[in-house]
Design brief:
Blueprint (H helix, E strand, L loop, with lengths): L10 E4 L5 E13 L12 E13 L2 E2 L6 E4 L6 E8 L4 E6 L3 E6 L5 E6 H6 L1 E4 L4 E8 L11 E7 L6 E4 L5 H4 L8 E8 L1 H8 L6 E9 L16 E2 L12 E3 L6 E2 L12 E4 L5 E2 L12 E4 L20 E4 L10 E4 L2 E2 L2 E4 L10 E12 L13 E3 L7 E4 L3 E5 L8 E9 L2 E4 L9 E4 L14 E15 L10 E2 L3 E6 L10 E3 L12 E4 L8 E6 L9 E3 L21 E6 L2 E6 L3 E7 L4 E7 L2 E5 L5 E5 L2 E5 L1
Parallel strand pairs: 4-6, 13-14, 14-15, 15-17, 16-18, 17-19, 18-20, 19-21, 21-22, 22-23, 24-26, 25-26, 29-30
Antiparallel strand pairs: 1-2, 2-3, 5-12, 6-11, 7-10, 7-12, 8-9, 8-11, 26-33, 27-32, 28-29, 28-33, 30-31, 30-32, 34-35, 35-38, 36-37, 37-39, 40-41, 41-44, 42-43, 42-45, 45-46
């Protein structure tokens, strides 16, 4: 069975021979159009047929507390597991890459679906009764970020106690009975090299809190030839622990030594204790998922502790008044940043609002724009500040259509309403929009925009930068859908509609929000349907009916000044005051000819009889 997508829940029957019968509700659609004698197609008639697909499969045994590796299921397929859960308790599930896992109870009833990044980070579920449970792994990511052909799944049913007191340094290994069951660990007491070495060996450890513990001298070498020292987070102490997503350092720490946290690629945020007096070289290098540092210390923030700001992405550092700083990244001291630079596609996290004297967001645009018939070239966007100005590296100052900005090159900006998308002239903080830049052969080069665009605001007193927490984001409700902004990656899923960056079923790039198409990148927005899952459409078109827009308003009239058009005996003549490129369209909006017009009069022959669109005029060729 090769389904287009696997739903969160589906029917499950457990047969006498312990095989599993799966029933998946699905639907098929077809569209029927008719072409008249002049070549114009009618509006398509769309019909939907719902039916059930059934398949029998055998489940592989998943052992408690032990990771199971298996071939990554392709799109529309799954891998089935059976696991014996010995008692009613919480179970911790984790995969090494984003995917979904549908879980069924011993009697075959759907219990839950664990999804995407949550499952990759680890999810705890409560099991009400012991027994045999069934797990179906599906919707696995396979792209440039996750190219592996295999997945790994672990179900931890007997978790080690989260909180341990190490009264005697070096005894932590004796306090942990099942190292593979340790996911979250909070320690008090005293930790030496032996304890740190053991912590580094915990394969499934994700959250470590040693804020109430003290690091002391003694014990084994914890990494290569490094030994612990009193109250020092030592050289390479937590180096290259990719599963670690949360780390609370000891509140007694006086020094964070060189490369102490280097290559913790799963770490997204960290607090620097107030007791810290110095932070060493390359302490945070290669922490490419790090989004937030709460720098509570008076230790200086130095450039040598980090990669370049470009490599650190959109990392945001909050520090108290008086903190010295030589790092040129995004640093907020006592609520004010001198300069904030944000880059598209890299996550951004700010749990609180702050001010910035100068803030810029950069994004590259390359899609071709559409026309009045077909929408194209649209992208979704959200920013944490009110944008004051827009500019392009080639065309200079930009502004939304109808904004009244003289001398600026225009582009299209739209917001969602209950009636669909409508044009707007301003971009406000934390509100999702769609944006399209003129980029077509039918426009003069002086109005085409591509490449890097900067969205900017500045104020000596500080521009307000909004918090990015969920409650601060504007969710815009339409008649049958909701538009949601995102500052961190939202993995593709059957409920997530993202704009198509490439042609999708004859829809031009940037022409529709498509379900389960791709990940939603930071600083984008996506749609979710308000309809029941079984009735939710495959896509929402940006152009078309219901108050939506195709995105093409007229470019300024001076782009086509100096042109005279007329027809004589079936030949089209274009008289122009200069050389230029013009496109001829049929009434359906399809380009039929591109003409290199010379200064003077250019004759265009070979056009069939009919009505054409050229330079905003209808031309009849007989």
């Amino acid at each position: 069975m090769n389904l287009a997508s696997v739903p969160d829940s589906f029917g499950l029957d457990i047969n006498n021979d312990q095989t599993l019968s799966i029933s998946v509700p699905t639907e098929s659609r077809f569209a029927l159009s008719f072409k008249d004698t002049v070549g114009i197609w009618s509006q398509p008639i769309v019909e939907t047929f719902k039916h059930i697909i059934r398949k029998t499969t055998t489940a592989t045994t998943l052992e408690n507390n032990h990771p199971q590796s298996f071939a990554k299921p392709s799109e529309g397929k799954w891998v089935a597991f059976v696991i014996e859960i010995p008692e009613a308790n919480s179970v911790y599930w984790k995969t090494d890459q984003p995917c979904s896992a549908s879980i069924f109870t011993p009697d075959g009833k759907w219990m839950t679906c664990l999804k995407g990044t949550d499952l990759a980070k680890g999810i705890k579920t409560e099991i009400a009764t012991k027994g045999t449970y069934y797990v179906f792994v599906h919707t696995a990511m396979k792209d440039a970020s996750y190219p592996s052909e295999t997945l790994s799944l672990i179900a931890i049913t007997s978790q080690q106690s989260n909180a341990l007191s190490v009264e005697v340094a070096g005894t932590l290994p004796e306090l942990v009975s099942d190292p593979e069951a340790v996911v979250n660990l909070a320690l008090t007491g005293y930790l030496n090299g032996t304890d740190i070495k053991f912590i580094r060996s915990l394969k499934n450890l994700q959250r470590l809190d040693i804020s109430e513990a003290r690091i002391v001298e003694g014990g084994d070498k914890y990494y290569e030839n490094y030994l612990t020292a009193d109250d020092v987070t030592g050289d390479y102490m937590f180096y290259n622990l990719p599963n670690l997503t949360h780390l609370a350092l000891s509140n007694h720490t006086t020094e964070i030594a060189a490369a102490a946290l280097n290559s913790c690629t799963g770490l997204t945020e960290i607090e620097i204790p107030a007791s810290v007096r110095s932070v060493g070289k390359s302490a945070f290098n290669n922490c490419n998922q790090l989004l937030l540092i709460n720098w509570n210390a008076q230790a200086a923030i130095t450039a040598e502790s980090f990669d370049t700001p470009a490599k650190m992405g959109n990392l945001l550092i909050f520090a108290p008044e008086g903190t010295g700083c030589t790092y040129e990244g995004n640093v907020v001291i006592n609520g004010m940043a001198e300069k904030i630079s944000l880059t598209h596609g890299k996550g951004f996290r700010s749990p609180q609002a702050f001010k910035a004297k100068d803030i810029t967001y950069k994004r590259n645009f390359s899609m071709k724009s559409g026309n009045k018939i077909n929408a194209a070239g649209w992208e979704a966007i959200v920013l944490p500040f009110d944008v004051q100005s827009f500019s392009n590296e080639k065309q200079g100052e930009l502004a939304p259509f109808n904004s009244g900005k003289k001398g600026a090159k225009p582009f299209w900006l739209a917001q969602m309403t209950t009636d669909g998308f409508e044009h707007t002239t301003a971009m406000k903080a934390n509100k999702p929009y769609i944006i399209s830049l003129p980029n077509s052969e039918s426009y003069e080069d002086e109005f085409n925009i591509s490449g890097e665009v900067q969205f900017h605001a500045e104020d000596a007193g500080g521009v307000e930068v909004k918090a990015t927490s969920y409650k601060e984001l504007a969710r815009i409700e339409g008649s049958n859908r909701i538009m949601i902004p995102a500052y961190e990656t939202v993995f593709k899923h059957d409920t997530v509609y993202a704009i198509n960056p490439a042609t999708y079923e004859n829809i031009a790039p940037g022409g529709a929000f498509v379900r389960n198409l791709r990940d939603v990148q930071p600083f984008e927005a996506y749609l979710i349907s308000k309809e029941a899952a079984v009735n939710a459409p495959k896509l929402y078109s940006i152009g078309g009916i219901g108050g939506e827009i195709t995105g093409i308003e007229e470019l300024p009239s001076d782009a086509l000044d100096g042109i005279e058009i007329y027809v004589r005996y079936g030949v089209l003549y274009i008289k122009s005051d200069r050389e230029r490129t013009l496109s001829i369209y049929d009434t359906a909006g399809h380009m039929v000819r591109q003409v290199e017009v010379q200064e003077g009069t250019t004759a265009v022959t070979g056009l069939g009889k009919g009505i054409y669109l050229l330079a905003r005029k209808k031309i009849l060729v007989q």
